[in-house]
């Protein structure tokens, strides 16, 4: 299921339409949910949400308005078999973004924190920054899915490193894309592996890309706790949605 978590019904139309369109292309069910709704307002919000979906001509397979906190998001996603999660960001406040990033760290699925300022999502071309970490290879399956089902043109933006690990990761991702005869390009970025995601943000400002696929931080260091992790700053700076993938310790030996 492709699911959308919304906070503000009246400003969620663009996000809902885009996620619903993606669900159709991927052949997935589509769901909409609201959390942290006061018990006294659940019925009213439920009716309002149904009316809004009807107005924008969207049919949902799953609809939930709950008082549950976002801390239960992981359990909800697992119970409802969510395979891709979109989260509405009506406001770009740092504390709000941090809140959702923290609860999403345990998710085993890709997720996007979607600003209300974004136009309807465009998956016709996607940008995939690639650094030297082993888990970057996992981006291949998601890039391939967009290429296969959304006909996305794919750009692999390789980190400008002295070593060969980023180039090796690009080769491995390319081999997966080649299996499906997908359209893609490889370009070397201007930044190294520690900054390549921010290079991607600069790149999409100059070129027409609708999505960035990035890996979330492995662990939060002291600087991440105080100033926020890299994904916080990516989300705030990016003019297009950033799809985040959590590193999977059960799939990789996390060493450099």
How do the helices and strands line up, and which of them pair or pack?
Blueprint: E1 2-5, H1 13-26, E2 30-34, H2 42-55, E3 62-65, H3 73-79, E4 84-89, H4 94-104, E5 111-115, E6 125-130, H5 139-150, E7 153-158, H6 165-179, E8 184-188, H7 196-206, E9 211-215, H8 222-227, H9 230-237, E10 242-245
Parallel strand pairs: 1-2, 1-4, 2-3, 4-5, 6-7, 6-9, 7-8, 9-10
Antiparallel strand pairs: 5-10
Overview of this structure, please?
The protein has 256 residues and is of the alpha/beta class. It has helices spanning 13-26, 42-55, 73-79, 94-104, 139-150, 165-179, 196-206, 222-227, 230-237, and strands at residues 2-5, 30-34, 62-65, 84-89, 111-115, 125-130, 153-158, 184-188, 211-215, 242-245. A ten-stranded mixed sheet has the order 3-2-1-4-5-10-9-6-7-8, with helices on both faces. Strand 4 (84-89), helix 4 and strand 5 form a beta-alpha-beta unit. Helix 4 (94-104) packs across helix 9. The relative contact order is 0.14.
Question: Main sheet, how many strands, which sense, barrel?
Answer: 10 strands, mixed
> How are the strands of the biggest sheet laid out side by side?
3-2-1-4-5-10-9-6-7-8
Q: What is the rounded Rg?
A: 18 Å
Helix content: 25-40%
Rounded average pLDDT: 90
User: How much beta, percentage-wise?
Assistant: 15-25%
List unreliable stretches of 5+ residues. 251-256
Distance between the termini: 34 Å
Structural class: alpha/beta
Number of strands: 10
Number of contiguous helices: 9
H and E order: EHEHEHEHEEHEHEHEHHE
- How would the global form be characterised? globular
